[in-house]
Specification:
It contains 17 helices and two strands.
Length: about 375
Amino acid sequence: MAEEGGEAEDTAQEDFQYKLKVYIDCTVDKSAKTRQGALDGLKTAMATKILYEFLLERRMTVTDSIERCLKKGKGEEQRAAASLACLLCIQLGSGIESEEVFKTLKPIFKTILSDGTASIQARQACATGLGLCTLVAEDDILDVYATMECFESLFTCSYVRKDGSRPSLSPQATQLHTNALLSWALLLTICSASHITTIIHKHLAKLPRLLESEDVNMRIAAGETIALLFELARDVNPEFDCEDWEPLCSKLNALATDCNKHRAKTDKRKQRSVFRDVLKAVEEGDFQTETIRFGTERMVIDSWVRKRTYDAFREFVGSGMNYHLQANEFIRDVFGLGPPVLIDSAALKAMKSSRLERHLYNAAAFKARTKARNKFRDKRVDVGEF
């Protein structure tokens, strides 16, 4: 039976790899629909499985396909190709292989990003993709700073002008600037102390004006970037003091308690939650920790640097993030988790509680909860005279 199980697993693996090869071949098909489907299929596979060995042999072929789709494709196809480039770098990790991939694709990313006539969807995807690929695969810190300047040239267009007027931008252009700001913030996490000091002098006084944006995503991105800058500034200099600290705290407090009727309820709820944490970061240097559980392990998100990095990877890997935290050596190294923990299926089965145990636990919890609630619902309780 063990031999039969092993053979079935090998057959499934061969079928899966054959499907991936078909997808790679289809990325050069004449039909845009077929190319789009192939890119999406490869993205799903890379987000949910570790394919290092398979991709190592075919990295240049996949890179050529991404390059062709970025150059000749339209809108959604370019967006899918940009995401696939990030997933390829995540799979290959921080080494010579991903550096080779990025050297090929970086000029194309920057060309699309700076081309005002290019598809806005493609530019948005390139703004996000360029940031993560730079974090993973860029080997020269000066090139990192040059890429950050590209992002600055975009999101600073949302800054309030010297005469106090606000630029009139379409929702799509605002989203492009938001993506550029988030990628810029991601690269801030690997900057030197001297460069962070320069950035603070250049941008910290202007960033708070982005909190007045009509777009909720831009407000949130600006707030989280401000919190990140304060955290980095205090790491460089524990006595760091901001000149406009009180007006900034007032503005953050207003957003944390926003009740404007013209804003959607979901936007207000999301905004309040984020800005309560941002206000704590600016006022007290505090961070609301979050625990991520995956398999038998757990990871604590305990800083804005760690949060920005985690959010960036999760944007591309999506629901496969927990799997990558368990098995992807590069991502584990980024978060200081050490080598992957190997647990066989028998051990995992032993660690899981049985179905009966879970049922009994849930029944007991339900009974206790019902008893507690009945104390407040009992009609026989004396509520006094009226």
